[in-house]
Amino acid sequence: MEYIMSGMTDGEREELERDVDLEEVERIVSKNNMLLTEKDLSDIVIEDDDGNEMIDPQALADAGSFEDDHGLDAFPSSEVDEDGENLVYPSNGAFTEKDLVELDDKISAYKAAREKLANQTYFGEGHTMAYMDVERDWPKLSNETQDEILDVIENSNTMACPEPEMWLMYDLNFNVTNLILASFKHHVEAPIMFTQWMPQLEVYERYADQREKNFEWTWDDVEQADMDELQRYYKGIGYDSIPKKDPSETGIITLDTTPMDDEEREMLALENWMDDVYNEEADNLLFDDESFEPRDNVFDPDYGTSSSDKSAALEEKFMKEYDAFEREFSEETQEWRDQFATVEKFEHREDIEGQKEFRGHLVVAITPSDEDLEVAEKITERFQEEFGKAVFVETRVLGHARKEDNVFEVWLESYEIDLLHSKRQAFINSKLWTGPSEVDAEQLEYLVEKVRELISDDARFSYRMSDYSDIKA
Prior knowledge:
Layout: H1 2-7, H2 10-17, H3 20-32, H4 38-42, E1 45-47, E2 53-55, H5 57-63, H6 97-118, H7 134-137, H8 143-155, H9 164-171, H10 176-186, H11 197-203, H12 208-212, H13 219-223, H14 227-236, H15 262-277, H16 280-283, H17 310-328, H18 334-337, H19 352-357, E3 360-366, H20 370-387, E4 391-397, E5 408-413, E6 417-422, H21 423-428, H22 441-454, H23 457-460
Parallel strand pairs: 3-4
Antiparallel strand pairs: 1-2, 3-5, 5-6
Helix pairs in contact: 10-14
């Protein structure tokens, strides 16, 4: 470069200026990089009425701007031979025209995104959580709205969303009732319910009409829900479309109303039996255990009231939760609170007379049919009339039993345990069980006389030969 500037002779300089290749490069560079020559200006420079030279406005409009030159056609190589002998870019392959076009596209997209972020149109024109600022927007809310939001945050025990102030302020721009109904309309099997929605309905004044109707919506309400509002809601939190979840991914449960098969009924019966008779804590409590208390002995009058009893611990936990529920929703009516939980308090009185007269416990095990319940009621009334407090009658409804199972069993737990009536045995083992299958008036009187015999002093102080039939001499 130093030689060209100061060492070349006039002849060498004239020869260089006449070089055909150099003239072509200069023409390409001049055209594509706006390096204008006097010849270029002679076509666009005009004189105004006062004789002053100026650039022709029409020529500028026809020429366009640098931004209009985009893509591979904007490069000098677009007008030279495909072999690339006149390219002005590096021949070592460091970059190509295509690389520059991609870089230019990314720069343009970045500039456009920054501009949209600046004017808050990047996520669309609607209300968007990304533009919200709690510290900036909170003072703009009315005092009533601020109090309602704080009430929801402080008293609701169902919200599980981070930054609750942000979510509650975002929801102010929507009808939450419609959002719930639209969620069911979108996917009835597994609607997505945000945890902050229902607390708003329970507190905000704007939803007082929904509280008056006790949030009892119909499927007609669901059909009339505005899906566009739900679409805007999800778009504002970054979703392109309303999402769907599988029912297993939600907290919704499905009630299976199909009839149980034999295996399911037997398993249910086993579970119920385990709950009734098996207490893991009590069964694993040994006599030499340090935590064994006198009332853990089955012969102690206070047996079953141990502090280690699982049922007592569950009852204590329930009562704590129940008391907290009553305090939290004390402003609601008692009728509304009773929909979720009720507690009945019983006064335990020691019946000295009943203990003195008691001789046995009659159990009537039946299916959940109305016919069986009517017969069990007749048995209870007849025994009450005949024995009073001497015999306690319990009607035990077996919820898992079907009518076709032919279950109607009566047994007495007194000095011995005796099966007095069995409808099931009458059907499946008629050779050994010769009694009737139904409890009619005659069978009822038979039960009365049989129980009278079994609770008598003769039965108490006698023994049965059958009790020793398995003893060998």
